[in-house]
Amino acid sequence: MECKSLRIGNYVKHSNIAEPICITGITPDGKVTFKMPFDNNLDCTSDIDNISGIILNYDIINKCVFSKNVSSILMFKNNGDIIIRGYEADYNGLYLGRVNELHRLQNIVHALYEEELEVNL
Predict the structure, then answer these.
(1) Dist. CA 11–CA 54, nearest whole Å
(2) Is the model's pTM score more than 0.85?
(3) Do 73 and 39 fall into the same domain?
(4) Is the confidence at residue 17, as pLDDT, over 90?
(5) Does a structural domain hold residue 37?
(6) Which pLDDT tens digit goes with each residue over 22-71?
(7) How far apart are alpha carbons 98 and 104 in whole angstroms?
(8) Selection from 103, 109, 100, 99 nearest residue 8 by Cα
(9) 45 lies in the same domain as 68
């Protein structure tokens, strides 16, 4: 994973922590900062090599709270593809592509709708 694919607020995995972490910052030297899942008062810094994406699956998608704007336009297929409906003359929508990690889905929602994707992990 590279720092450039992350934003503050992204949920990811840390190799030494069982629970997902939420990114709170990215340092100029390429490290990520986050709060410990079990102690929000404890600030931590880690090398990007310890960070990996949370693989999207049905359970993770169900923990995402999509606003009406997002849920009415994004369509999720069983194979992992995401379709944007209503942006093209084709009734089926515009193919957006395959997204297999939670932080990438968070980034897409933010880029398209300028809102954060609420995730209840």
Answers:
(1) 7
(2) no
(3) no
(4) yes
(5) yes
(6) 999 999 998 999 988 888 778 899 999 999 999 988 788 888 887 776 66
(7) 10
(8) 103
(9) no
